[in-house]
Each structure stands twice: as structure tokens, then as C-alpha cells.
Amino acid sequence: MTAPPPPADSPEDSVTARRFALHSTFAPLAAAFALSACAGGAAGTAPSPSNRPPVPPVRADALPRPVDPVRAAAAAKGAFPPGWRFEPGTEATFAEHAMVVSVRQLASEAGVEIMKQGGNAVDAAVATGFALAVTSSSNGNIGGGGFMTIRMADGRTATLDYRETAPAAATRNMYLDADGKLTNKSTVGYLASGVPGSVAGMAEALAKYGTMPLARVMAPAIRLAREGYMVERDTSRGAAQCSRLIAQFGGKDLFCPGGEALKGGTVFKQPDLARSLNLIATDGPKAFYEGAIADSLVAEMKRGGGIITKADLKGYKPVWRTPIIGTYRGHTLITMPPASSGGITMLQTLNILENFAPLPPAGSAGYAHLVGEALRRSFIDRNSKLGDPAFVKVPMDQLTSKTYAKSLAAQIDKAHASKTPAFNAGPEPEHTTHYSVVDPYGNAVATTTTLNGSYGSGVWIRGGGFFMNNEMDDFAAAPGQANMFGLVQGEVNAIQPGKRMLSAMSPTIVVDPRGQLMMVTGAAGGPTIITATMEIILNVVEHGMTLADAMKAPRLHHQALPDELAYETRGLSGAVVDSLKAMGHTVATRGSLATANSILRVKGGWHGVGEPRSGGVAVGY
Ligand code: DON
Asked: What is the pLDDT of residues 117-175, one digit of tens each?
């Protein structure tokens, strides 16, 4: 079932190497950490270290999961067709005690450093979140929002919704032109942003489940913003892609100096962002929602015709929600309820698939067909029934019930695709970010956060030093018309002041049948978040793949509309594609589906795997 333990050489060596790298990178920070810790937590209610569960470090070999390397290899062989971009059988990063997997090495290291100082997984997640706001500007953020799933070592579970909200002045048809057609104002510019939730959310998670003051966990991010970091190649590439968006607003001088995208290898300093982060670390989230940062944000809105006001900011509140808890073949999933659709839709799909025991092998036409048909049914419900529970009644119990799933499974014809009305999807911007954390005490955190599109609305808060989200596009800005992910959604997700726009973010924690923390996962990628997260879980739980193979295996996607079964280029063999067409599927290829970062318990510790398609980084010790 599980990944084999690492060989004695590479992963252990790389952990040791990183340990030294970390030590030297962060040594100058020790004094700053100590000082800021003395200054007290900005969260105000920062808990005492006694909140940390009094349990000894978890040695995973206390309860090894059964390993079946033969089954794992066979599953991967079937799932990886000839010509697929990745080889099966590669190793994950191994760590004995704790792990952070995110899209940036420096952000993963920030979380690990906090845990090495005695912090727990929530402390580390918040450190990583703020470090991503500095090092991954197109998706890491303080101008966006997100969702966090937490499982503490004592079994407590929690989900925090810090999704953006529609400003009070938002109106149902604010993005339509005179002919009722959608304009691009929900994606670009001053009107596209919801009221940001990230700062309030991270501070709230820390106050309730963390053990360290805000200033201490923010110290790595502040240093990275103030002293700068080396721009990675892909950051430079992202800026190049977005320079036309960025160039319309105030971020152009910093991100496109002299009209050129940032070059890989330059040291990138962000003094305005450093100042904002410092204010948050010192004064708490009030600095963002009521203080100097709020002033800069509202001034920028006024300058460009935006509608977010001081009252919107002051009124923003993250919400603790009851997690969606479901099962799949004896495993327990802890995941995100609305305002994200992620948990319900993933669980509903798994509940449907559970009726087919066992599922056909990964990579086969039968498997792709069943996954596609199950997803079609769950997304039909998602797109028409899910919205912010503060505004609409969400039939959560029905949608997640095994009985309902059984009735949907009974409608699936094993040999023929069903139909939903056709629709042409728009392009898929890729800019959300997911990170997974486990600590030495047995706590785990899965977090997904986003600006929505890459660099969000493009609007740059002058003086504040950050980009604003374009999350308003996740509403059904024109019910019945597709948004930028091709999602056609209904009235339940129409724009209303103060409402949270429906998300697909699915930060998920899996507990094995013996009650042991097993897996932490989630993804970026709009609606493909739901499918990728589910497929990674299926690859491990159903097909018995190692985590490395589960992450590298080709991915599928179906979202009801457009009515097509998407697969990654060369991710299905020609014969399988022909069979799917013969069953009546419209098939479509995508270059890449989603960006995930995952952790899996293995004998003696943890395997961490960053997204192989775009280069996530696992760091542990
Ligand atoms: O909340 C959502 O579902 C979207 N705003 C996520 C956007 C996304 O993942 C973009 N790509 N990586």
C-alpha cells in the first residue's frame, strides 16, 4: 500500500544537506526571533506553548502501514503510458520527524525552521504562508484568501475559511455590459477583488492552534522581503507572462523594471511589503484591516475606481467551519466545506466511485470513464447547488450521503458516456498555491491560498507592496455563463454584498483505517483542484502507488460543463483514448492539470513530494 522506505543514500543525504543549508541561511535570524518573541504576539490572544499537544514526537514506524511494492510498481506501470513525461519508481523526499511541501524552497524552509524552534504545524503553516506571500508573488499573498484544514495529534479537527467576501457595494450584474455579456472586469483591474482574508485567516489559525507569537512566525517572511531573495527561473517566467497585466498597474516598477520581466538570479527586495509585514507582525491583523495598510489599499481603490472601503476591511472575519468528514474504503477524509465546493464535490465523487469495487486499473479506459462519469454528476450538483452557506441553503448532508451517491452510481452506464450540454471553456490561468505540513508532534495542516488568476487582478497596492486578488470571478458573475475556468454556475453563487464566492480549494487530510494520520494533500488549478486532490488520494488508497508515483501519474478532469473528459497530453495511450471516444466521450487534452504538494506517512517517517509538473519543494528533518 505505502511507499517503500527510502534507500540509505539519496533522500537521507539530501535532508542532511538541507539541514546544513538551513542552519547557515537562518542563523542570523536567531536573535531577531528571540527579540520578536519577547515583543509578544501580534495576534493578541497568542496561546501559550502548553497548547502544543504533550505527545512525544511521532515515529511513524510505531505503526507501519503495510507495504506492497509489487502492487505499487504494477499500478504505476499501468498508469504511466509510453511517452508520458515522468518515469515511475522515483523517490520522494524522506524526513523522519516533520515536513513542509510548498511551491518554494524558501517558504518550505521557513516552516521547517519554525518547527525546529519548537513550533507546531500551525506555526509552520503560517510561517510558510507569509513566506509564500514574499517568494511566490503570483499566488502566495496577503491580498487574497484561502482555506486551512487542521488535524491535531489529539484528534481534534478544524477547517478555517478565510475566503474573500464581496464588497458591500458589489451588485449582482456589476460585470455585465449593456447586452448582458460578461466583461473582463471580474478578472482584471480594480473591480475584480474581493475583500482579502489571508492576513485575518493566518492570524486566527495561529491564535487558536499555534503556539508562537505572530511576530516570530513572520520573521522569515519579513527578512526575505527586506533583505531579498534570489529570483527563481519560474518566477521570472511568470512575471514575463504577466508583464502586460502587471504593467497596467503600480507593480510594474518592481516586477518589470525598465519594462523587462525580472531575470532569474537577481536579488529581489520588496521594501514596501517588508514594511507591511512588519506592521502586521507588530500590530496584528488590525494593521491590515484598519491601520496603515488599509489606508493604502483604500487609497489605491479610490485612485482606480475600485469599491473596497475601510468599512469592508474592518468588517472582514474568517470563519471556523465544521469540517467535511467522510470515508473512502475505510480511510477518513477531513476536508473543506463551503464556501469551498472542494470537500463536498471530492467526497461525493469518491462516494460514487466506492460503489465500483474494485475500480478498474489506473490508466485504463474503464477507470477514466468511471472517474469522468462520477465527476460529471458531482460537478452538476456543485455548479447548481453550492454557494456561501451564509446566503444560500446548501444540501450538504444529501450531497455527501452514501445513499445519494449509490443512486448516482446506479445511473452510470459502464460502457457509454452520458451527456451534458456542450460549452466552450476559456483559458486556464494557474495561480493558486497549496502547501502541506506535518510536525514532530503528530499535528497536520493542509492550506490552499490564492489570488485566483496569476498576479490576481494585477492591481498593486502602492505603499502596501502587494497584489490584489481577482476572486470576484469565482462568483457566477452571469449565472449560466462560464467564468474563466469554464465553470457554468447558478444563482446560488450569484454576487451579493458580503457573500463568499464559491471555491474549489480542497485542502485535505487523510486518516488511515487505524486512526493514524496518513496523508496531507491539496492542489492549485481552479476546478481541477478537486479532481487532482481526489486522484492523488485514489492513486495511494485505491491503487497502492507510492506518493512519488501518485503525484506523477497522469491526471484526468471532468467538470460537467464543458462536457469533455480532459486528460494530460500523452497521459492516456492512443488505444485508451479510442475506447473512450467509442464510449461516447468528448476527450480533450490539457498540457498540465493542477499543481499539488503532498505528504504521506511511510515506515520511519514521511514522504514529501512537490508538484513534479512545476517544481514544488519538500523540506523536512
Ligand atoms: O477558489 C478557487 O477555486 C479558484 N479561485 C482557484 C484558482 C486557481 O486555482 C488558479 N490556479 N492555479
From this structure: 999 999 999 999 999 999 999 999 999 999 999 999 999 999 999 999 999 999 999 99
Separation of CA 349 and ligand 1 centre (Å): 19
Tell me which residue has cell 483514448.
Answer: 577
Please indicate, yes or no, whether the overall pTM of this predicted structure exceeds 0.85: yes
Could you please report the per-residue DSSP string of 59-89?
A: -GGGSPPP--HHHHHHHHHHHS-TT-SS-SS
Q: Atom 8 (ligand 1): residue with closest C-alpha?
A: 526
**CA 486 to CA 551: how far, in whole Å?**
25
Pocket test for ligand 1, best of 136, 141, 450, 475 (most atoms within 8 A of CB): 450
Active site residues: 432
- If you search the block for the grid coordinates 484544514, which residue do you land on? 149
| E-strand stretches of 323-430 | 324-328, 331-335
Determine whether 180 is exposed, middle or buried from the number of CB atoms within 10 Å of its CB (0-12, 13-18, 19+): exposed
**Please, where are the H alpha helices in 89-197?**
105-116, 121-135
Ligand 1 binding pocket, CB closer than 6 Å: 429-432, 450, 452, 471, 474, 503-505, 524-526, 529
Least Cα distance to 126 among 71, 67, 206, 183 occurs for 206
Q: What are phi and psi of 328, to 5 degrees?
A: -140, 115
Q: How far apart are CA 281 and CA 289, in angstroms?
A: 13
Phi, psi of 615 (to 5 degrees): 90, 55
Distance 505 CA to ligand 1 centre (A): 7
Q: Which ligand 1 atom lies nearest to the CA of residue 501?
A: 1
- Provide the pLDDT for residue 315: 98
Q: Is the pLDDT of residue 253 over 80?
A: yes
